[in-house]
Amino acid sequence: MRLTEITFEEGRPVDGYGPNFFRIAGEVFEGQVVILPNSCGPWLGFEDATPFVLVASDLDVVFVGTGAQICQIPLNFRTALEDAGIGVEIMNSPTACRTYNVMLSEGRRVGLALIPV
Questions:
Q1: Do 57 and 48 form a contact (C-beta atoms < 8 A)?
Q2: Which residues of 12-34 are buried (b: 16+ CB within 10 A; e: fewer)?
Q3: CA atoms within 13 A on the CB side of 92
Q4: What is residue 5's predicted lDDT score, i.e. its pLDDT?
Q5: What is each CA distance from 52 to 5, 8, 39, 69, 93, in whole angstroms?
Q6: Across all residues in the chain, what is the average pLDDT?
Q7: Of 74, 64, 75, residue with least CA distance to 99
Q8: Contact 16, 3 (CB under 8 A)
Q9: For the domain with range 14-115, which CATH number is right: 3.40.50.1460, 3.40.605.10, 3.40.50.300, 3.40.1230.10?
Q10: Cα distance between residue 56 and residue 113, in whole Å
């Protein structure tokens, strides 16, 4: 699937996604991915909230894409982010990608945690 092109002044938009991959700012990543204000790369999953907590002062919300379907996330992951002052929004990965891109285009302080579809 290809997403609608938007102009971004800052950040790394999600350009596309498919089975087990995401295209972020033109670069393809396989598996789980994290996008933060100043970095992007593989993510270890819900056991690892550290990348988000380390940049908590630069984030207002993290969109969590849970794959093809919406599902609950582990309480310890949510709590770690919320205790750091970061809002958490759970949705399926396609919706998380679109929502992230819209918020990023508006200059919002957002992050994205993605599990492939």
A1: no
A2: bbbbebeeeebbbeeeebeebbb
A3: 7
A4: 58
A5: 27, 22, 11, 23, 18
A6: 94
A7: 64
A8: yes
A9: 3.40.1230.10
A10: 14
Q: What would the pLDDT profile of 27-78 be if each residue is shown by its tens digit?
A: 999 999 999 999 999 999 999 999 999 999 999 999 999 999 999 999 999 9
DSSP secondary structure, the chain, as one string: -BPPP---SSS--EEEEETTEEEETTEEEESSEEEETTEEEE---TT--HHHHHTGGG-SEEEEEESSS-----HHHHHHHHHTT-EEEEE-HHHHHHHHHHHHHTT--EEEEEE--
Task: Provide DSSP, 78-93.
Answer: HHHHHHTT-EEEEE-H
Q: Where are the domains of the chain?
A: 14-115
Buried b (16+ CB within 10 A) or exposed e, 71-85: eebeeebbebbeebe
Q: Read off the pLDDT of residues 96-108 as tens digits, 9 standing for 90 and up.
A: 999 999 999 999 9
Contact 95, 69 (CB under 8 A): no
